[in-house]
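Figure 3 (text version): structure tokens given as input.
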């Protein structure tokens, strides 16, 4: 797997469930690109935080 920005293979990928959504977090150790992806593609951190909120 390669970084989308710098094309290096120094990428960390973590898959997790946030709220009820399956998400993948990717971070490049070379250029420090950080990205969240869901079923519909890339999403901003603000959306990930919304999904993680506890609803009362």
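Below: residues designed for each position.
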């Amino acid at each position: 797997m390669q970084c989308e920005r710098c094309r290096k293979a120094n990428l960390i990928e973590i898959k997790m469930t946030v709220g009820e959504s399956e998400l993948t977090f990717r971070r490049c150790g070379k250029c420090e690109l950080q990205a969240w992806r869901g079923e519909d593609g890339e999403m901003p951190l603000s959306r990930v935080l919304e999904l993680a909120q506890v609803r009362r």
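Residues 16 and 41 are 15 Å apart (CA to CA).
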